[in-house]
């Protein structure tokens, strides 16, 4: 399962960790275990342990999603957004992303932020886009941090604030978005000494209050 993974108002899907073995997962899923239902959907979507079958993936994602399992809600949202084995339906994608985002899933927060930013599947709402980007950024989501940097640098739905843009580019680099370091270096040339000091202060405060999750 793939979706666009670009650093500007577009959907992302996370790299999956190694999936569990098919046989025990299927037993648990058929017994109604939500985590196993989602994992079985991912196994069918991945197509390594079994022949890839997105229709089966949708079936198992939906079972878990309807029970409130956030990752399954997110996975189902991705399939609706790209129209994979379900009708392409951005409103339905947004509905599932929102359910997962409200449970704190950073990938869903990033994706629904992009949909609010572009008005895809939901009414355009820059404030909600900013809120969800901030929620995901606080969990260490690199693309959300980069999107916030771009917004403040280019005055996209927020007043231009190059100090804040520097902060977010630095934090995006912290989270593994290598372009963030390059963007920060370019931006630094536009700041005076006082602004650079303020930017570094903001970075230090954010790092202290929102440490990156341990791998």
Secondary-structure map with pairings?
Layout: H1 22-30, H2 34-46, H3 54-66, H4 70-82, H5 90-102, H6 106-118, H7 126-138, H8 142-154, H9 162-174, H10 178-188, H11 193-209
Helix pairs in contact: 1-2, 2-3, 3-4, 4-5, 5-6, 6-7, 7-8, 8-9, 9-10, 9-11
Q: Would you mind describing this structure in some detail?
A:
This protein has 215 residues and is mainly α. It folds into two domains: 1-14 and 21-139, Alpha Horseshoe (Serine Threonine Protein Phosphatase 5, Tetratricopeptide repeat); 141-215, no CATH class. 66% of the residues lie in helices and 0% in strands. The protein is built from eleven helices and no strands. It has helices at 22-30, 34-46, 54-66, 70-82, 90-102, 106-118, 126-138, 142-154, 162-174, 178-188, 193-209. Helix 2 (34-46) packs antiparallel against helix 3, helix 3 (54-66) crosses helix 4 (70-82) and helix 5 (90-102) packs across helix 6 (106-118). The protein is elongated. The relative contact order is 0.09. Mean pLDDT is 93; it is low at 1-6.
Whole-number count of domains = 2
Total strands: 0
Give start-end ranges of low-pLDDT stretches.
1-6
For this structure, the CATH topology of the largest domain is Serine Threonine Protein Phosphatase 5, Tetratricopeptide repeat
* Separate helix tally: 11
The H/E string reads HHHHHHHHHHH
Whole-Å distance between the termini? 23 Å
Helix/strand/pairing class, anyone?
A: mainly alpha
Largest sheet: none
CATH superfamily grouping of the largest domain = Tetratricopeptide repeat domain
Helicity level: 55-70%
